Amino acid sequence: MTAQITMGHESSGKPVEFDIEELLATRLLVQGNSGSGKSHLLRRLLEESAGMVQQVVIDPEGDFPSLAEEFGHVVIDGSAYAPPEIEALARRIREHRASVVLDLDGLEVEQQIRCAAQFLTALFDAPREHWYPALVVVDEAQMFAPAVAGEIAEDTRRMTLSAMTNLMCRGRKRGLAGVVATQRLAKLAKNVAAEASNFLMGRTFLDIDMVRAADLLGMERRQAERIRELERGHFLALGPAITRVPRAVKIGPVRSGRTMRAEGLMALPNTAPEDMAKLLTRDLASEVAKAPPPPAPPPAPRVEEIADSIARAEERQVEPPPGIEPSAITAQIEAIVTGMALDESIAFQSASAQYQTFLTRCRRERIVGPMPDMRAFRRRFAFAATGVDDLDEATVARIMQLADRVEEDLIAPFLVIARAAHAGETQVDEDRLARAYGTSSPGRIRRLLEHLERQGLIVVREEFGGGRTVLVPGLADEPTE
Q1: Domain assignment of residue 343, yes or no
Q2: Does some domain include residue 227?
Q3: Is the pLDDT of residue 313 over 80?
């Protein structure tokens, strides 16, 4: 099998070939402004070498999933997997020598960077027996190896720089050949760019990028203007896998990919101004209407009110009068607790305010007898509010056994999670969870789940795309893949 592929032709018609074996040992850097044809060049390289070598593509823009239809690449949607799963996928990719496209288009920029960094690190850390040769193509590499700190978090920047540096500096011994493409050399970390020995420089206009490109190509700086004049799809090539002297190459056609619309002018719609105004403003209010915000939690009661409430509750810890069955009093109390659980305005009250409301309603109903203390009330209220009372006795007993280890103020949200787990649901209704916890803050919900997970009460599986799966060990079997 020949290791030569044809990337394109010179103006004279002479073909320009790549030596893939040499490319695996010497790596490739591609530069060009937006619209210069970088993605087309990468697609040509991938298509021509598809049958020769394993290929792994880091695709932040969703440009390369179409390779699957023509060449059998496996497309991995980065937003559908949790971080540990991304790492496990990378290890299996190395083991089974699968050609894949890691599609990050559905993620925010920082999530893209973290996902790609963990994926590349897992590729790099694969066991020695899986060090098979592979092309690792990273499009928009300035995102993953920034020259200076940007808006991303510092720990994210360090993680991605480490992953890209390992790929370009130490990947060769592990069979990984980095192919990085960037819009601007000035934005790409120098220690990443410096490890490439093959270069394809497309059109660029900024002086700093032209000078760096000319230096890499071994051209005199007065010749740098030539880079500014390159047409779309034309590149200057140099490197041991391509040519020993700079050559201009026009990249050949590709077979996969979307058909891009033609650039240029097109006729404007022939619509009267008043009709266009109607099109723009029709039903505008309904389109932007949003659901009303949740009601603000009421102010916390004063310390004096709480003390008075507790004192009044203690006064009522007496035996019921003769002729009144304890079971009747219990039924009345349960009815009051159930009614409170159905009242939306009570859900966001503090525990002390809820207990005070409960005692007030008991007085209004002229209930005389031993009242549940605050701890017992909170448990009854949590069970009524979450619907756990509707389950069979065996399930309720099992949930109660698990809930024994839960702090009092976390009983209600834990019961929401447990009820969902018993029903076989892995996605917890976060509105119900927020209502049970008495908050409308996503941050507090996240910290709640982290706390319950540290206690070993639940298992949380976060996905890069924002999805969240919550399991309760010992209550429901975990789903199998």
Answers
A1: yes
A2: yes
A3: no
pLDDT(364) > 50: yes
Fill in the DSSP letter of residue 188. B
- Residues in contact with 276: Cβ distance below 8 Å, sequence separation at least 6, in sequence order: 269
Instruction: Give the tens place of pLDDT for each residue, 215-247.
Output: 777 776 666 667 777 888 899 888 899 888 888
Q: 38 and 176, same structural domain? A: yes
Q: How far apart are CA 190 and CA 33, in angstroms?
A: 18
**Does the pTM exceed 0.70?**
no
Residues 50, 169 within the same domain: yes
Same domain, yes or no, for 322 and 233? no
pLDDT band at 314 (very low <50, low <70, confident <90, very high): very low
The rounded distance, in Å, linking the Cα atoms of 23 and 195 is 12
Describe the chain by its helix, strand, coil percentages, rounded to 5. 50, 15, 35
pLDDT of 60 reads 92
Rounded to 10 degrees, what is the CA torsion of 391, 392, 395, 401? 90
**Residues in contact with 50: Cβ distance below 8 Å, sequence separation at least 6, in sequence order:** 67, 71, 99
204/305 same-domain check: no
